[in-house]
Amino acid sequence: MTSRKKDKVQEFLINLCSVLTIAILVGIIGFIFWRGIPGINLNFLTRQWEERTTYVNVGEYVEYTDSETPGRVERFGVTLEIAGDGVAIAGLDSSSSLTKGVDGAGSVYKMKKHDIIEDVDGYSVEDAYEEWQEGGGQDPEAFLAQITAELNALEGTSHRIKVMRPGGGIIPMVVTTLYMIGLCLIIAGPVGILASIYLVEYAKPGPLLNVIHFAIQNLAGIPSIIYGLFGSLFFVQVCRMQYSILAGAMTVSILLLPVIITATEEALKAIPRGYRESSIGLGATKLQTIWHVVLPGAVPGILSAVLLSIGRIVGESAALLLTAGTVATIPGALVGSGASGATLTIKAYTLMKEENDLQTACAIGIILLIIIFILQIASRWFSSRLLKHRGQ
Amino acid sequence: MRQKVRIHEKIVETLFLVCALVGVISVLAIIVFVFYKGLHPFFGEDPYSFQEFLTGTRWAPGEDTYGVFYMIVASVLSTAGAIVIGVPIGLMTAVFMAELAPEGVVRVMRPAVELLAGIPSVLYGAFGLGVLVPSIRKISPLVQGQSMLAVILVLAIMILPTIISLSETSLRAVPQSYREASYGLGASKIQTVFKVTIPAAKSGILSATVLGIGRAIGETMAVMMIAGNPTAGLPSSIWSMVRLLTTNIAMEMSYASGRQQEMLFATGVVLFFFIMIVNGTLLFLTRKSKEEQK
Q1: Any idea where the domains of chain A sit in the sequence?
Q2: Residue B74 pLDDT more than 80?
Q3: A325 by DSSP, 3-state: which?
Q4: Is A233 close to B93, i.e. CB distance below 8 A?
Q5: B-chain residues near A3 (CB < 8 A)
Q6: What digits encode the pLDDT tens for the residues A325-374?
Q7: What is the homologous superfamily of the domain B50-293 according to CATH?
Q8: For A161, phi and psi rounded to 5 degrees?
Q9: Which of A178-182, B56-60, B212-216 has the lowest mean pLDDT?
Q10: Looking at the domain covering A51-165, what would its CATH class be?
Q11: Looking at the predicted structure, is the pLDDT value of residue A118 above 50?
Q12: Where are the alpha helices (DSSP H) in B119-224?
């Protein structure tokens, strides 16, 4: 009787722990979604992160339409509205002169919906807006009419507009993350795959093979902050790359080697010996056998390894923080100044740490979770293909 | 023609070998660079006392004081706490998946555990910051929620997937005949699990634990925001703020230069030392279990 009671208690404990594990997972994902969902909207997904102010020279609009819409500024072919923090563009005619502006550097600057007009020919819309706000913000229609009247009454045919494009979007981080994935796969992919081919197909058991395996096992055990330290010393300082996406990608590539090599080795080992022997027996060279017989069969396994690595790149933070920096713009070069860029994960971290903005961090977290989830499903699909192959 | 093919093959083989050696070169480079930079401040002109570095309990770069002892203590205690909480929960979950759960439940749980492993550590940090720290603040005798307890809980959660998946594999590797023999002697299912299966899978579970230790002691970003990172003082209770070896590096690396930067590398060397112990133990365990299998 007592032993049965003990059984019951132990079984209860086992079930409790399993439920706890699942509850933790649901709790974490639930928390991220609960805090992050309010921060996700179209602007968050499509805008640049930093707001940018530009002076643009524009001409006049030629196709007058005599529209009576409130907020209409006929001379530019544009409709204005009062948006969150200023007077913003609500709509542009397709041939509006604001779409053909030229900025200070002489390149075309196309204004878009939601851009905020701050100043036109010295008439400060921004000041007028602030004054109106301080006065209580009464009667927005009248205020908008006042602004449009002022703008329509301007003289001359060439105008200089100070325009502010609002930020708050994750586009630069998405692009940086994609760059980072691309660079890491270009560097670590071939090295990792060729290394596994050597280990499985060429290497003979002996000290060399042991040393290589020992090194790879150790690489897998080194925490990413140590990779970060190494990267910040070697790539950033010694190689003079500065905080840049290439320095980050090189560092993460080393970190990925064990992931790719271990998984690819498994995939190659799954190809039956007989395949290789029959190919050699038919007169193929070793290389031909690898290229035409072994690799095609191992493709699903290799792809699953690649997807696994993408997951690591997307989630990596400590190593990138010390090598690629935290700048929230699209990097303009591989190395040097202007090449620094924050991936989504790094941005989520800096938002929490420096700006105390948990909501936006969680909104980025939702994007990350969705990416990880898709990658894992795809990876599982590929490895089940490999298992099927093995079963044949 | 044949000669040409042979040369061609030889070149390609050499290329493969070079790729395989990249891993070896990387390990060597990491060790050499981190150790060179990290040991530099203790030698040469105006050396810093190595003993003061290892035993000091205050980190004040402005006053040229660098003591990491309180970080070592914090790292070791937090890791130990995470193991004490995480291993039993993980092992029990693994037992459930390997021994008790119906196939359908396992098919749901395994991807769930994988997902837990795939969540970026920054998001664990967000969870800690948004959920654990505020809750701890409510029950803590101190004013802040950032504490060793928060660190322990987050680390315990983070090592769960490692513990679960490795333990499950080793539990499943226990031959069915062991269990049948136990049933034949009249033992119940639960008795068999605790008296036969878990002891038989001991070495795998131990490896999982060691791997968990490695993950916990090296974790940086998840614990960065919930540790508090004080500039001095040994942790006096689970409620006190801690600065870990890893967070010390990540906190200051972006702006440090000169001796401060070298001292951060020295912190990395200390961390590396712990990782080497963990890796060595792991290697020893896997070699031992391989011998046992033979």
Answers
A1: 2-39, 51-165, 171-391
A2: yes
A3: coil
A4: no
A5: 188, 191
A6: 888 888 888 887 778 888 999 999 998 888 888 888 999 999 999 999 99
A7: MetI-like (1.10.3720.10)
A8: -115, 135
A9: B56-60
A10: mainly beta
A11: yes
A12: 121-127, 133-139, 148-172, 176-184, 189-192, 198-200, 202-218, 221-224
Chain B, window 88-117: residues with a beta carbon less than 8 angstroms from a chain A beta carbon: 88-90, 92-93, 95-97, 100-101, 109, 111-116
Rank A24-28, A71-75, A299-303 by mean pLDDT and report only the highest.
A24-28
Q: Residue B252: pLDDT above 50? A: yes
How far is the CA of A287 from the CAs of A251, A262, B2, in angstroms? Answer: 31, 21, 14
- Which residues in chain A are contacts of B160 at CB distance < 8 A? 21, 24
Scanning the structure block, which residue is given the tokens 């740490």? Answer: A353
Nearest to B142 by CA among B233, B250, B55: B233
Q: Could you tell me what percent of chain A has a pLDDT over 90?
A: 27
Q: What is the pTM of this model?
A: 0.88
Sign of CA pseudo-dihedral B159, B160, B164, B165: negative
Q: Residue A142 to residues A78, A135, A137, A147, A148: CA-CA distances in angstroms?
A: 18, 13, 10, 9, 10
Calculate ∠ Cα A167-A170-A176, nearest 5°: 120
Q: Tell me: pLDDT of A42 over 90.
A: no
What is the complex's ipTM, to 2 decimals? 0.91
Helix (H, G, I), strand (E, B) or coil at A76: coil
Identify from B24, B123, B253 which residue to disrupt to test chain A contact, counting A C-beta atoms within 10 A and taking the largest count. B123
Selected from 3.30.160.670, 3.60.20.10, 2.60.120.10, 1.10.3720.10, the CATH number assigned to the domain covering A171-391 reads 1.10.3720.10
> Any CB–CB contact under 8 A between B71 and chain A?
no
Minimum-distance CB partner of B250 among A11, A221, A321: A321
C-alpha distance from B188 to closest chain A C-alpha (Å): 8
Encode A300-313: b = buried (16+ Cβ within 10 Å), e = exposed.
Answer: bbbbbbbbbbbbbb
**Separation of alpha carbons A369 and A232, rounded Å:** 28
Model pLDDT for residues A231-282, shown as the tens digit of each residue? 999 998 888 888 889 999 999 999 999 999 998 998 888 888 888 888 888 8
Residue A246: which of A260, A231, A256 has the closest Cα?
A231
CA distances (Å), origin A71, targets A68, A149, A218, B38? 9, 9, 66, 64
B157 and A24 Cβ atoms separated by less than 8 Å: yes
Strand partners, B66: B59
Residue spans of the domains in chain B: they are 2-42, 50-293
Q: What is the pLDDT of residue A62?
A: 66
**What number of other Cβ atoms are within 10 A of residue B13's Cβ?**
16
Half-sphere exposure of A149 (CA within 13 A, CB side): 7
Residue A56 backbone dihedrals phi, psi, to 5 degrees: -125, 135
Name the residue in chain B with its Cα closest to that of A314: B120
pLDDT at B212 over 90: yes
For residue B283, give how far its alpha carbon lies from the nearest alpha carbon of chain A (Å).
9
Cα angle value A116/A120/A122 (rounded, 5°): 130
- Distance of alpha carbon B42 from its chain centroid, rounded? 28
Dihedral of CA atoms A187, A192, A197, A198 in degrees, nearest 10, equals: 90
Q: How far apart are CA B167 and CA B164, in angstroms?
A: 5
Distance CA A138, CA A117 (A): 20
